[in-house]
Specification:
The chain is an alpha/beta fold and about 400 residues long. It is built from 14 helices and 14 strands. It folds into two domains: about 150 residues, Aspartate Aminotransferase, domain 1, CATH 3.90.1150.10; about 220 residues, Type I PLP-dependent aspartate aminotransferase-like (Major domain) (Aspartate Aminotransferase, domain 2). About 45% of the residues are buried. The structure holds pyridoxal-5'-phosphate. The site of pyridoxal-5'-phosphate has 13 residues, from helix 5.
Length: about 400
């Protein structure tokens, strides 16, 4: 089972590059590519969720649009930024267009933090954030969580004992748990961060994918109404709701950080692809996005239902989430996670082991969870995959009984 390791780098590699941990999810790619493998491991949106017709039309408009082919402002296309501002319910001046929210994380960190600064991150977190921190020389500190997310007391204790400069979170349909942090918890964390001058980095690529009701107030919105001293950078993305290959995301940046963010974006890549930005602009202008998104939500909701049923029949006890792409499932007691993983691979089904998301690799408690993406496969494959998982679980429980 792949684990956190640091890549072995030749001597001419920078210290930061050498410190980047191998991404445990990317290490699963060879298994994902195996013939007959049914994978719930990757967090990739479904090809069926892509509005091919609407996007083809937008690409047609973009290809005939001279703005696609020019250099443009580093902070983003002047027509696209107001559209993104409406989606985030902020003023257009706050928007910086990025190449996906992954670049948003990088730009946020490089604009606001120095090497050796500490960043508080949830104990279960999106692994690629660790790569960004390592690449820029910051130190991650894992903060304990309960079912509502990061614990305010734990954050407070950590801030009191280390030089924490930022808190990184995915509070809405987060990766890996799929849960939504309740409003009261958000406010408690925001108050602590405001009090200690800690920047909140709210990574929010899944917020559009709600099933029945739109999610709670974002940290950005709460900062406006609850505590104006709080600094929040929010990161959004078109990857999960439009198409990941476009590589278009955006940042909502507080006033005092706008100059730094614009300078780092410019230093980084001058601008996000003009063609991609104009495609998103034409897609949003056409009204197709608003018409298509409810279908994506319905598709993923149905797939979650099928997966939850299948997992119950297979002997797991999953809890449904209210949106996003992930099911975070605790293993039945007595099941060895590594045995289950190798039995699942033998059955040609793949999940992401919980330990892959440990922000502190010495924390073994996440071993007893697995993350399953219900978005990427169709219902028939989800049923089949759950049966295979049931078989793997039965074999793992038997193997355990004979130990
Ligand atoms: C929490 C989180 N942040 C950022 C990203 C990167 O998304 P993007 O494609 O917008 O760069 C992902 C992708 O899976 C993610 O899960």
């Amino acid at each position: 089972m792949p684990t956190h390791e640091t890549s072995h780098a030749p001597s001419h590699t920078s210290r930061c590059a050498a410190a980047i941990p191998l991404n445990p999810l990317r290490a699963l790619f060879p298994l994902v590519a195996r013939d007959g493998m049914l994978s719930f491991a990757n967090g990739h949106p479904s090809p069926d969720a892509c509005d091919h017709v609407g996007l083809a039309h937008a690409v047609d408009c973009a290809k005939d649009d001279e703005m696609s082919w020019r250099y443009g402002p580093s902070i983003g296309d002047p027509d696209l930024r107001p559209q993104l501002a409406m989606l985030s319910d902020v003023e257009p001046d706050a928007i910086v267009v990025t190449s996906g929210s992954q670049q948003g994380i990088d730009i946020a960190v490089r604009s606001a933090l120095n090497p050796d600064d500490c960043v508080a991150i949830p104990s279960a977190c999106y692994p690629a954030v660790l790569s960004v921190l390592a690449a820029n020389g910051q130190r991650p500190i894992a903060i304990a969580e309960d079912e509502h997310g990061v614990l305010p007391e734990a954050l407070h204790d950590t801030i009191s004992s280390s030089a924490v400069r930022a808190l990184y979170l995915t509070p809405t349909f987060g990766n890996p748990t799929g849960r939504v942090m309740p409003r009261a918890r958000r406010i408690a964390l925001l108050e602590i961060c405001a009090q200690h001058d800690v920047l909140v980095i709210e990574d929010d690529p899944y917020c559009d994918l709600w099933f029945e009701t739109p999610p709670h107030d974002t940290f950005v919105a709460l900062a406006r109404v609850v505590n104006r001293n709080a600094d929040v950078i929010a990161l959004r993305s078109a990857s999960k709701s439009v198409a990941p290959g476009l590589r278009v995301g955006w940042m909502v940046v507080p006033d005092r950080l706008r100059g730094a963010v614009a300078a780092i974006k410019q230093a980084s890549d001058l601008q996000t692809s003009g063609l991609a930005q104009r495609t998103v602009f034409h897609y949003l202008s056409s009204g197709q996005f608003d018409a298509w998104l409810p279908q994506v939500r319905a598709l993923y909701q149905e797939r979650q239902t099928v997966m939850i049923d299948g997992l119950h029949s297979a002997g797991f006890a999953p809890t449904p989430v209210d949106g996003g792409m992930f099911s975070w499932v605790k293993l039945p007691s007595g099941v060895n996670p590594e045995t289950l993983f190798s039995n699942a691979v033998k059955q040609n089904v793949l999940f992401a082991p919980g330990i892959s998301f440990a922000s502190d690799p010495t924390n073994q408690s996440l071993r007893h969870h697995i993350r399953l993406c219900f978005a990427a496969q169709g219902c028939a494959k989800i049923k089949q995959g759950c049966k295979r998982l049931g078989q793997a679980l039965a074999e793992s429980s038997e193997a355990q009984n004979h130990d």
